[in-house]
């Protein structure tokens, strides 16, 4: 009887898993199409879709995931998406979440490499409008996270100090230092206090698989240059260059640009003009800035080059997240770690607040009309509960109106 019951339940579990993976793919693809504004804006979009609307994670767990991904090298917003995907559907779920979020911008940039190199995206009104959308999205996310993660005087002070340090010393290592110091403050002040029990995050990855992912990350970083020196395969040289760039970047997508420039220009893969044109296009499309690698690969070797470059630059991020999360959930249950995370979460709010000002505000709000549009979009998000996929086209149309009528 029990064997029969098990056989009946098996298709139900498989259908449930397939349904969950399909939902994850559709949601992440929607985010990949609508998430304009860079990595910090992406965290705002994720917060709105994954946390507020679908409640796949609680606020504290989301902030902790953001903090972990800020510390790890690689594209932080993509790593957060991969992490949420892993929690929903294991390694395959992480792959599906990454694929959905990344695919739209990869396709757009490869098409740009083929067909659109003469288009000027720098002064397009709709792009200006999408930058203003990012202001509203991030402001909304910061406000929501601050209510939960920095609600009292001491945690608000940590958040403000974190924002100040991040703005006054804008380096990737400043963020890591701020998170570390905030963790020390949290451990000092909150390790003996009663804190709400953290929800258990089920990470469906075995410890042995996590260790394998971390080992593979380090092994590829060490041995790919050795293999590239021994073998004369053009695809291996490309994979090595982009894997190394994706492994050694702290601080988000913009930091990867000088690394990529040093890899591709001396090798003669493309001209400096082509490099800058692709960078301009990468700023204009939604999704992660790391997909700039798809453009570079396409210029070098068509669709094959685009696929190799994209996989190589994102693979380190995937391996690091998959290798870290299973151990992280065990650590976060300890009382001292919980106190540390209270400070870390407050610092994450401050780091997002700093990013709201620079680069998002300073590059987007240039005139009173820009501020008016941002205020309208913020009001729609906050008080009218409009979803981001509605805010994006409204902001794009508003940017066109501002550029053509008001200015």
From TrEMBL:
Entries under InterPro entries matching the protein: Chr_Tranpt_l_chain, Chromate_transpt
TM regions (residue ranges): 21-45, 91-114, 126-146, 158-189, 209-230, 280-299, 306-328, 340-360, 367-384, 390-406
Domain of life of the organism encoding this protein: Bacteria
Pfam families in the cross-refs: Chromate_transp (PF02417)
Keyword Ribosomal protein attached: no
Record membrane topology: Multi-pass membrane protein
Protein's cellular compartments: Cell membrane
UniProtKB keywords: Cell membrane, Membrane, Transmembrane, Transmembrane helix
Record-stated family: Belongs to the chromate ion transporter (CHR) (TC 2.A.51) family.
Protein name: Chromate transporter
């Amino acid at each position: 009887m029990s064997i029969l019951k098990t056989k009946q339940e098996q298709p139900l579990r498989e259908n449930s898993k397939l349904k969950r993976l399909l939902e994850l793919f559709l949601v992440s693809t929607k985010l990949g199409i609508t998430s304009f504004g860079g990595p910090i804006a992406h965290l705002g979009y994720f917060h709105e879709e994954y946390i507020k609307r679908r409640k796949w994670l609680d606020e504290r767990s989301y902030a902790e995931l953001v903090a972990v991904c800020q510390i790890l090298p690689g594209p932080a917003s993509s790593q957060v998406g991969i992490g949420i995907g892993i929690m929903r559907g294991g390694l395959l779920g992480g792959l599906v979440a990454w694929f959905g979020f990344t695919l739209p911008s990869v396709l757009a940039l490869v098409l740009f490499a083929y067909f659109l190199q003469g288009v000027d995206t720098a002064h397009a009104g709709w792009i200006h409008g999408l930058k203003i959308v990012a202001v509203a999205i991030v402001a909304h996310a910061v406000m929501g996270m601050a209510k939960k993660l920095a609600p009292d005087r001491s945690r608000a002070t940590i958040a403000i100090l974190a924002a100040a340090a991040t703005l006054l010393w804008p380096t990737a290592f400043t963020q890591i230092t701020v998170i570390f110091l905030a963790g020390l403050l949290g451990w000092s002040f909150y390790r003996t206090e009663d804190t709400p029990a953290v929800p258990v995050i089920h990470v469906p990855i075995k410890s042995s698989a996590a260790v394998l992912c971390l080992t593979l990350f380090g092994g590829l970083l060490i041995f790919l240059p050795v293999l590239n020196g021994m073998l004369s395969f053009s695809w291996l040289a490309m994979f090595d260059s982009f894997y190394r760039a994706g492994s050694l970047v702290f601080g988000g997508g913009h930091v990867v640009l000088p690394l990529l420039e040093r890899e591709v220009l001396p090798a003669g893969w493309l001209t400096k003009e082509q490099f800058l044109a692709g960078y301009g296009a990468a700023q204009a499309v939604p999704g992660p800035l790391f997909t700039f690698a798809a453009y570079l690969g396409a210029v070098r070797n068509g669709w094959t080059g685009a696929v190799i470059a994209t996989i190589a630059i994102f693979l380190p991020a995937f391996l690091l997240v998959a290798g870290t999360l299973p151990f992280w959930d065990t650590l976060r249950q300890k009382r001292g770690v919980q106190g540390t995370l209270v400070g870390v979460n407050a610092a994450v709010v401050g780091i997002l607040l700093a990013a709201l000002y620079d680069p998002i505000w300073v590059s987007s709000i240039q005139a009173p009309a820009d501020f008016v549009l941002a205020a309208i979009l913020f009001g729609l998000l906050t008080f009218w509960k409009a979803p981001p996929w509605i805010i994006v086209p409204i902001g794009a149309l508003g940017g066109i109106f501002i550029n053509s009528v008001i200015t």
